[in-house]
């Protein structure tokens, strides 16, 4: 098992890893991003996830499950073009949940599970 940190402020405060690689899978913790608009936060969260996936040996094409959490479900549609661009021809199974997040300034949180590239090819 391998743990990956992105240096996010909550990782140390709460005690979790950005990602854990285990059993041929990459488990990405809920990830938020900075920005004034939900789309900016979504783009920033996706960039953090992309970096964690790359460090683990995976990418968006190997994501099998994603969960989107938003305090206001009405803002989700604005993120669709970013999500479509990230996952392209390899859309994962997905769920969107309307819920409170750790800080009211956050408007979207994304978590996902992916196969390692090597595991997917084997």
TrEMBL record:
Keywords: Hydrolase. Pfam families: Ribonuc_L-PSP. One of its GO terms (molecular function) is hydrolase activity. InterPro entries: RutC-like_sf, YjgF/YER057c/UK114. This is Rid family hydrolase.
């Amino acid at each position: 098992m391998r743990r990956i940190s992105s240096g996010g402020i909550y990782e140390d405060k709460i005690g979790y890893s950005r990602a854990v690689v285990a059993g041929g899978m990459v488990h990405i913790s809920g990830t938020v991003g900075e920005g004034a608009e939900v789309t900016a936060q979504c783009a920033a969260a996706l960039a953090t996830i992309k970096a964690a996936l790359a460090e683990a040996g995976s990418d968006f094409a190997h994501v099998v499950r994603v969960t989107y959490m938003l305090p206001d479900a009405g803002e989700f549609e604005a993120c669709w073009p970013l999500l479509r661009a990230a996952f392209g021809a390899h859309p994962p199974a997905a769920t969107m949940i309307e819920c409170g997040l750790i800080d009211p300034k956050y408007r979207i949180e994304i978590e996902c599970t992916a196969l390692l590239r090597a595991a997917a090819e084997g």
